[in-house]
Write a structure and sequence with these properties.
Lipocalin, Methane Monooxygenase Hydroxylase, Chain G, domain 1, three-stranded antiparallel β-sheet, 5 helices, globular
Length: 301
């Protein structure tokens, strides 16, 4: 009799647990929301433009940003913001009024560069809005953007545009240059003549080699690299990472790629995506960079 009672209790307990589990599953299925507007999912890419002025009057850099939309439901929107070496999760809400879809998405807030994105998607083709920094003391508190939808695909054959010049404006060398009026060169060094000097900015300028050598598809050799300048080697190495969609942290690197049409920042770590040829080329390029030198030239913006 005692065993029978224990058996009945066990059966009752098992049935209750099973019923409770089924109820939980049914509740979960009922509350799980359908995804909306999946045609908007993916990367929206374009310029991230500072509205604030530099305190020193310098031109503020324009970075390339990728706002990636991952999921849209009635109650939540998730995605990522990828720009200037930062790769941050986004979370917020969506509202729709007529043909205009409006989003307010927040970065987590635990990083000094985090902020809030507010934007609209018009006719499913243009994402327009602003970003406002959480930190009121940040040098750039507000940026604007107008983005178009682009799919990222790794292509080892894309090259830097040949019509552009690649000048390192971020690291000028300042030199004092004698001011000599035209036709007065002969009197420049005569005794009693006071020579005036002015500061001149000199810049590193890359050679055409960066548009001829493909560091992702051809195995680079010492003969390919021995006569290149340091800036050439740096750009050839970073072009590998740009093809894989790495978001670059330093302004020195971003200035060469953010304006390139095919470049889309999608990740903060692409080390697992590199091909064997690319890994070998990165190694030899780093070795040559260590000892290479640069020529500095005067060049106006």
């Amino acid at each position: 009799m005692k065993k029978l009672c224990c058996l009945l209790i066990a059966i009752t307990f098992f049935s209750c647990n099973k019923k409770e589990k089924n109820n939980d599953e049914n509740l979960s299925n009922k509350t799980q929301e359908n995804e909306l507007m999946t045609e908007l999912y993916g990367s929206w890419v374009g310029d991230f433009v500072a509205e604030d002025q530099d305190p020193d009057g310098n031109e503020m850099p324009v970075n390339k940003i990728n706002i990636s939309i991952k999921k849209i439901t009635h109650s939540e929107v998730t995605g990522r913001s990828i720009v200037a070496g930062n790769n941050r999760p986004l979370n917020g809400r969506m509202t729709k009024k007529g043909d205009t879809v409006r989003f307010v998405l927040n970065e987590p807030g635990d990083d000094k560069n985090d902020g809030v994105f507010e934007f609209e998607i018009k006719d499913d083709t243009l994402l327009v809005g602003t970003w406002t920094a959480n930190n009121p003391n940040k040098s750039v508190r507000k940026r604007t953007f107008s983005l178009t939808k682009k799919d990222f695909r790794y292509n080892p054959y894309v090259m830097l545009p040949e019509e552009d010049m690649y000048v390192d404006y971020q690291n000028p060398k300042i030199e004092k240059v004698a001011m000599v009026e035209e036709g007065d060169e002969e009197n420049e060094n005569k005794e009693g003549n006071e020579i005036e000097y002015e500061n001149t900015s000199l810049y590193r300028i890359a050679s055409e080699s960066i548009m001829k050598l493909n560091s992702s598809t051809q195995k680079l050799t010492e003969s390919d690299l021995k006569n290149l300048k340091k800036i050439d080697l740096e750009i050839l190495r970073n072009t590998i990472f740009a093809r894989h969609g790495l978001t670059f942290k330093t302004k020195t690197v971003r200035q060469f790629f953010d304006q390139v049409e095919w470049y889309i920042p999608v990740s903060s770590d692409v080390s697992k995506e590199l091909t064997q040829i690319e890994k070998e080329n990165i190694t030899i390029l780093k070795r040559f960079e260590k000892y290479a030198e640069d020529n500095y030239d005067s060049f106006g913006r």
